[in-house]
Amino acid sequence: MTTAVIILSVISALFAAFFIVIRVTKAPIYGLLTKTLASMVFVAMAGIGVYLGGNKMPDATALIVAGLAFGMVGDIVLDLKRAHSEFEDLYLTSGMSAFTADHSFVIAATYLIAAPTIPNLWLPSVASAAIALAAAPVVMIVSLKIMKANFGKHFAFSAFYAAFLIFFTVLSLWLSILDAKFVMLCVAMILFLLSDLVLSTMYFVEGKKEDKLLVVVNHGLYYAAQILIAAWIFTLAM
Asked: Taking a C-beta distance cutoff of 8 angstroms, is the pair 215, 23 a contact?
């Protein structure tokens, strides 16, 4: 399992790196095709992890694979708006919805995996929700006042998504303190949060949409997060 996860992680990282190079150097259609391929690879990696784990693998890991599949859909939809800018609002809303579903499936799996070994899950859940509800408005205010972001019709959904992602990140951090098997998930969610902060700058701050440095940083953080989540599956059977 250890050898398999290392090999598959390297392969996934290479496909992601190839996509990032294409994304900043070629036409949108080539970026879309290579992004789809890179996303398919980390979903396949997760599925292989579940298969190799066999009876040792918690049943809930199937939900993680489903979540990563929604992430792949979100990937594709968000890149479609580059090729069809007239539907940009629709693609952005659809992409954010897909990633909300992605996190929802992984959160459900996390609770099912944590329940047998971590008592009183309500406590980290409530504390994480409280922190998210306090932090999300701060993030939005900083984005509006300091970063000069213009969320337009996406303000409500962006605020909800920020709170949702902060909740999961804090929850994974709390669980990693209680049980070491959640450390990889915690690191992945921190990377995911950072990636979405960069993505928010690209989408909602004027003049940043095609900033190549932000494109590289955003996708580098994002694929590192998704590959870590796929790799986390392998550790659950060890």
From this structure: yes
How many helices (H) does the chain have, and how many strands (E)? 8, 0
Cα gap 129→30, rounded to integer Å: 40
Rounded to an integer, what distance in angstroms lies between the CA atom of residue 99 and that of residue 74? 6
Domain boundaries, the chain: 2-235
Could you give the C-alpha distances from 13 to 102, 204, 230, 233, in angstroms and in order? 20, 28, 12, 17
155-178 helix and 122-145 helix, angle to the nearest 10 degrees: 140
CB neighbour list of residue 54: distance below 8 Å, 6 or more residues apart? 237
Asked if 128 and 171 touch (Cβ cutoff 8 Å), the reply is: yes
pLDDT digits (tens, 9 = 90+) for 10-55: 999 999 999 999 999 987 888 889 999 999 999 999 999 999 988 8
pTM strictly above 0.85 = yes
What does the DSSP assignment read for 44-113? HHHHHHHHHHGGGS-TTHHHHHHHHHHHHHHHHHHHHHHH-GGGHHHHHHHHHHHHHHHHHHHHHHHHHH
186 in helix, strand or coil?
helix
The count of other CB atoms within 10 Å of the CB of residue 228 is 21
Tokens of 167: 């909740």
What is the widest separation between alpha-carbon atoms in the chain? 52
